[in-house]
Amino acid sequence: MNVLTLLGSARKKGNTATVLGWVEDALTNLGHEVIRVNLHGRKLNGCMACNQCKQVSDAPGCVQKDDIPEILAQMVAADLIVFASPLYFWGVSAQLKAVIDRTYSLYTRYHETDHASLLEGCREAFLVTGAGGWDNNAEGAFTAFKRMQNPHKTQYTGELFIGNCTTPADMTMSMKEKALAFARRIIA
Ligand SMILES: Cc1cc2nc3c(=O)[nH]c(=O)nc-3n(C[C@H](O)[C@H](O)[C@H](O)COP(=O)(O)O)c2cc1C
Fold first, then answer.
1. Which of 9, 61, 78, 141 could form a disulfide with 16 if both were Cys (CB 3.0 to 4.6 A apart)?
2. What separation in Å is there between the alpha carbon of 13 and the centre of ligand 1?
3. What's the mean pLDDT in 107-125?
4. Are 174 and 151 in contact (CB under 8 A)?
5. Are 95 and 51 in contact (CB under 8 A)?
6. How far is the CA of 130 from the centre of ligand 1 (A)?
7. pLDDT digits over 58-103, tens only?
């Protein structure tokens, strides 16, 4: 399987990168091809809601000239996309949100009978780290992510929340085991 991972954290050696690294190593060891995109530092504009993308159905139709069209093309080419982010104010980081909003350009005629998506059939999985626990904290991000599967026409294959994070050095074996189980789940 061709796996694309999107790291939404600015900290390349932070909590999210550590957990995502465990997942990537597990997927690689299982024989999958894994490419990571570190979103921080890339030029990531927000969606302009210009709707010009809706005129194009056979390619990512976004007209903006930043780094996101290349990332969208990588998403379209993948069999599985793992979206990874620290929890920021109960949602995902701005870097990842910019990419998610620009996936608006990957589908046409949502809610119509001829709704089409360039991501159709692809798997999507979601990995989030946070300083707090799950309750009153992470559930909104997961609800939004699940709903995104409808316009994307994708298969939601798994979610992982690693809460009570402090530093990567203090991450526990139990956190790593959860990450490895998540890796196995999302390719099953
Ligand atoms: C701007 C900001 C907002 C945050 N909001 C939350 C939050 O809503 N819930 C939570 O549990 N942790 C929150 N945190 C903590 C981070 O999600 C947590 O430390 C995460 O593991 C950091 O990941 P990183 O090392 O990849 O940056 C926030 C941190 C920052 C900097």
1. 9
2. 14
3. 96
4. no
5. no
6. 5
7. 888 999 999 999 999 999 999 999 999 999 999 999 999 999 999 9
CA of 96 to the centre of ligand 1 (A): 14
Query: Which amino acid appears at position 120 of this protein?
Result: E
Atom index in ligand 1 nearest the CA of residue 168 equals 25
Which residue's CA is the nearest one to ligand 1's atom 26? 16
Ligand 1 pocket at CB < 6 A: 9, 11, 14-17, 86-90, 129-132, 137, 165
Spell out the SS3 assignment of 123-181: EEEEEEECCCCCCCCCHHHHHHHHHHHHHHCCEEEEEEEECCCCCHHHCCHHHHHHHHH
Say if residue 56's pLDDT is above 90: no
